[in-house]
Amino acid sequence: MALRETKTQLAAVALAMALATLWLGFGLANPIASGLLVVTFYVLVFAGAHAYLALRGDGDSVPVDARWRFVGLVVFGVLAVTLGNAFARVEVAGQSLGTVAWAAVLAVFAGYWYYESRDAYRQTRPS
């Protein structure tokens, strides 16, 4: 099982690298296209394998629900940080949007860590 996950992760990274190479060769030089490339690249690298395995229903070592939660976490984190950086000069309650985005990402990551830890503990407890 671990070998299949490793191969899937390597394929996701290779796909992201190919996408970046094609963008550099034929890409549009504008901030929106660059932002979309960065978002797609990070999501593919960090969550591409989990998304693929979750779509296949592969839950041998990691439950499918946990894979989807991780994909959602990565997508949220990448989008929040990208938008926070893109609109860093905008202020929310006296703080830059970048600071607010990072605070939201940290809070969501902490909640995710707590939820996954609790879920794993419950699965290993004897009934």
From TrEMBL:
<protein>
    <submittedName>
        <fullName>Uncharacterized protein</fullName>
    </submittedName>
</protein>
<keyword id="KW-0472">Membrane</keyword>
<feature type="transmembrane region" description="Helical">
    <location>
        <begin position="67"/>
        <end position="88"/>
    </location>
</feature>
<feature type="transmembrane region" description="Helical">
    <location>
        <begin position="94"/>
        <end position="115"/>
    </location>
</feature>
<keyword id="KW-0812">Transmembrane</keyword>
<feature type="transmembrane region" description="Helical">
    <location>
        <begin position="12"/>
        <end position="29"/>
    </location>
</feature>
<feature type="transmembrane region" description="Helical">
    <location>
        <begin position="35"/>
        <end position="55"/>
    </location>
</feature>
<keyword id="KW-1133">Transmembrane helix</keyword>
